[in-house]
Design goal:
33% helix; six-stranded mixed β-sheet; alpha/beta; Rossmann fold; 358 residues; nine-stranded mixed β-sheet; 2 domains
């Protein structure tokens, strides 16, 4: 049983992914939201709103639902893979949970979450690529290009149409899918399901099981790939120690998660033999020592994203779990190599275009 520390989040999860009758009352508001989404997209298509084309290729990784789907680990993985293949990726982020000023800010492993948000710090630390944060992702992308990026990856930028893109990736939670299939606020959808037909690749996070989600059955094998998040060795929050998840098997632990889908994290710990006391907070919440003061001496286990915000807190016996993305060999190599070739050709095309206009 998941203990939700925040009634609003608990209520929304029941509404979006359960059988709550509230969805019928909120359905008219979803219709209004749908009209606004369609109108906004139409205004971009006819040029009333302008999309800005950059001098380098842009890859967008995002989702069409609210909540955690594995987008941040995919962004990190993609940046690292492109770097291995000779590209110089730069990542741009909205910086949820932070507050930047009028100009883009570069996020580093030592940045403040209050300024750039937790995800940007995690991406910078794990990808070792330049990460720039600003609500205006066009401005952030230009800052990344000025810092040497020859490919821009927009984290959670699927609906940020002001930034023109060359390749779109939609990340989906294979277990929760799209919930009740309704748009906000009656459901978790940011855009209609048909939006998935327009992206270049759908990545589905699974737990190793076969995925049988209605909207995925409408996609071709070429456009969708499954991946899993594999936990690595646990690290001590304010120390140098590391332990395997198996070291905690049979122990009762406080599991803390202020992420979009905390239940998946709790299940992962239980799958490794831990007896979990779950503490789910709203996504991006700035955790404090008070949130971790359980007073019973039991180990505290949290996500790596939450550890970014908790570093330096006076809390002992606290551990976090880094995760890495894993694709089946064929599922990864085929589309990733296609993307690599596409980006190389796109850079050559943009180089010729820039030379002809200079």
């Amino acid at each position: 049983m998941v203990r939700q520390n925040g009634n609003d989040q608990d209520w929304l999860q029941r509404l979006w992914y359960g059988e709550s009758a509230w969805r019928f009352l909120l359905w008219p508001f979803s219709l209004v939201f749908s009209v606004l989404v369609s109108l906004r997209l139409a205004l971009y298509r006819i040029g009333v709103f302008r999309s800005h084309r950059l001098s380098v290729p842009v890859v967008v990784a995002g989702n069409i639902t609210v909540g955690g789907t594995g987008k941040t680990p995919i962004t990190i993985w993609l940046a690292r893979e492109l770097k291995i293949r000779g590209h110089k990726p730069g990542v741009v982020s909205r910086g949820y949970g932070g507050k930047v000023g009028p100009v883009p800010v570069e996020a580093t492993a030592g940045s403040s979450p209050a300024t750039v948000g937790d995800e940007a710090i995690l991406i910078a630390a794990r990808s070792r690529c330049p990460v720039f944060v600003h609500p205006d992702r066009v401005a952030a992308a230009r800052a990344a290009i000025a810092a040497g990026a020859d490919v821009v990856i927009a984290d959670d930028g699927l609906q940020h149409y002001r930034l023109a893109r060359d390749y779109e990736i939609a990340v989906i939670d294979g277990l929760r899918g799209t919930g009740n299939g309704l748009l906000l606020p009656a459901g978790p959808l940011r855009e209609p399901l048909d939006r998935l037909q327009c992206v270049d690749r759908v990545l589905v996070q699974t737990e190793g099981q076969d995925v049988d989600v209605p909207f995925l059955r409408r996609l071709t094998d070429r456009s969708s790939s499954a991946f899993t998040l594999v936990p690595k060795q646990m690290r001590e929050l304010n120390g140098e120690s590391s332990r395997t998840l198996g070291d905690f098997a049979g122990q009762t632990v406080h599991a803390v998660a202020a992420i979009g889908n905390p239940t998946r994290f709790f299940r992962m710990l239980e799958a490794h033999g831990m007896r979990v006391i779950p503490h789910a907070y709203r996504d991006h919440l700035q955790l404090t020592a008070k949130h971790l003061a359980f007073g019973d001496g039991l180990p505290i286990v949290m996500t790596e994203k939450d550890a970014v915000k908790c570093s330096g807190l006076p809390v002992g016996n606290c551990w976090y779990v880094p995760v890495t993305v894993k694709f089946p060999n064929a599922g990864r190599s085929n589309w990733l190599e296609e993307l690599n070739i596409f980006l190389q050709k796109k850079k050559e095309e943009l180089c010729r275009s820039n030379a002809s206009t200079s």
